[in-house]
Amino acid sequence: MQFGIFTVGDVTTDPTTGEAPSEYERIKAMVRIALKAEEVGLDVFATGEHHNPPFVPSSPTTMLGYIAAQTSKIILSTSTTLITTNDPVKIAEDFAMLQHLADGRVDLMMGRGNTGPVYPWFGQDIRQGIPLAIENYHLLHRLWREDVVSWSGKFRTPLQEFTSTPRPLDGVPPFVWHGSIRSPEIAEQAAYYGDGFFANHIFWPKEHFQALINLYRERYEHYGHGKADQAIVGLGGQVFLRPKSQDAVREFRPYFDNAPVYGHGPSLEEFTEQTPLTVGSPQEVIDKTLTFREHFGDYQRQLFLMDHAGLPLKTVLEQLDLLGEHVIPVLRKELDSLRPAHVPEAPTHASRLEVLA
């Protein structure tokens, strides 16, 4: 079981001070958070990709390469690589380069993103979002597995005997998760290729994601990659921790109430009841996270959102200390003990290389 954090890289005003970090401060804070994640024993750090304010991570491979140089164990991932508006050739080469620099500690999550205007900024039509995701990933999949590729499609110029460079490290492409909040077509795509499916289990009730994950598992088995319960599933989540529950609620409430992503809607109490958000003590986070297995089956990766809504860096680092010391060791022990022997662990570069050996 892999545990980690993901960031959306928002620049948001702290409602308790009225101040917002500069882009420079936010970017440096994300790096510091990644280093802290490795320090406290997490397995994964993932960054989103955005090209519009108030977000700063427009170049994930640049950031992850910088972090790779300062870490040795943590897996570096994206929490969305925009498969619709990035050229598959550039994705193939950028992430293969990052894979070499990070000694294989790289995977990525493909997604369509949640910002409509990004499509025309990169010369695409949002109405073609699903066909773009399907065609572009088909090409990317081939570029990483075939030394010479000739290809033609609808959305980019043809390729004639093209070789992307560098080639994937050890001949093993980065592992791909297909991320989705709402699209069954993406669950189908993940199943077809035998890739991972990441349900960003944050904003909606569990029943919505149960349907997507069940579809992915059924189709994974249909395509012959293994039994349904052997499919590779990842989940999002979000927490705010303090040793005492009442302190967590009191401290987090102004951030929740003003956060652009969910402020000014349901109350904090309503939101925590209806979604995975947990605001409370380490034990409350443990108890709620353990219910995810009951809802979705055995799964391989759990990522938490912890650094958004204007939370100061000091607070985020304190959150990571609590997560690493009091929450993850218990969750790791419990979930690993419950996972049947035939259900695979989360893929790594080393484990995938072993299979090919």
TrEMBL record:
An example molecular function term from Gene Ontology annotations: monooxygenase activity
Keywords: Monooxygenase, Oxidoreductase
Residue ranges of every copy of the Luciferase-like domain listed in the record: 1-295
Gene3D superfamilies hit by this protein: Luciferase-like domain
Entry-linked CDD domains: Tetrahydromethanopterin_reductase
Cited Pfam families: Bac_luciferase
Cellular component, GO annotation: cytosol
Organism superkingdom: Bacteria
SUPFAM superfamilies: Bacterial luciferase-like (SSF51679)
Membrane-crossing residue ranges in chain numbering: none
NCBIfam families named among the record's database cross-references: LLM_CE1758_fam
Protein name: 5,10-methylene tetrahydromethanopterin reductase
Organism, as annotated: Amycolatopsis keratiniphila subsp. keratiniphila
